[in-house]
Specification:
The protein has 172 residues and is of the alpha/beta class. The protein has two domains: 98 residues, 2-Layer Sandwich (Double Stranded RNA Binding Domain); 45 residues, Sigma 54 modulation/S30EA ribosomal protein, C-terminal domain (SHC Adaptor Protein, 2-Layer Sandwich), CATH 3.30.505. It is globular and about 45 Å long. 16% of the residues are buried.
């Protein structure tokens, strides 16, 4: 596994690099097919952000954490990734069982071409629409998925081409 560590708005020390490499390096034990791990550490005022993107067999597992101290941000993002990797492994095992357990109808399904879908796992956090708008304006992403604290539904807020924000809510 190739571990790439970037620092934004901060100087990376050797201790911080070693700490991040040790924490991210332990994921080799859980999944042996991780090709690359990109770690981005950044500081904005009092917010210490750690973002990790793992490339696993063409799909991506991503997590980020913001705390008041960089080492705790790294610890928190590692915990989030552990939960996501466990879910990923459970899905892979259940898909394998479904393929082995299928009898009779399997031939027609095997001849159809398989399309690769880019996957990204996210933690959907409950928050207000105003908090989500503030989050998307602070980030460089074009959209943000969150759980609406008022309705309990999953919503998507996105940047429109005219510079304003749009909100997608499920119809009930």
């Amino acid at each position: 596994m190739n571990i790439i560590i970037h620092g934004r708005h901060m100087e990376l020390t050797e201790n911080l690099k070693k700490y991040a490499q040790e924490k991210i390096g332990k994921f080799k034990r859980y999944l042996n097919n991780i090709s690359e791990a990109t770690v981005t550490l950044s500081v904005e005022k009092y917010r210490h952000r750690a973002e990790v993107l793992l490339k696993v067999d063409g799909s991506f597992i991503q997590a980020e954490s913001i705390t008041g101290e960089m080492y705790s941000s790294i610890d928190e993002v590692v915990e989030k990734l552990e939960r996501q990797i466990k879910k990923y492994k459970e899905k892979m095992v259940s898909h394998r069982k479904n393929k082995k357990g299928a009898t009779g109808v399997g031939e027609a399904e095997e001849t159809t071409p398989v399309t690769t879908i880019k996957r990204k796992f996210i933690d959907v956090k409950p928050m207000s629409v105003e908090e989500a708008a503030m989050h998307i304006e602070m980030s460089d992403k074009n959209f943000f998925v969150f759980t609406n604290a008022h309705s309990g539904n999953v919503n998507v807020i996105y940047k429109r081409s005219d510079g304003h924000l749009g909100l997608i809510e499920p119809k009930q």
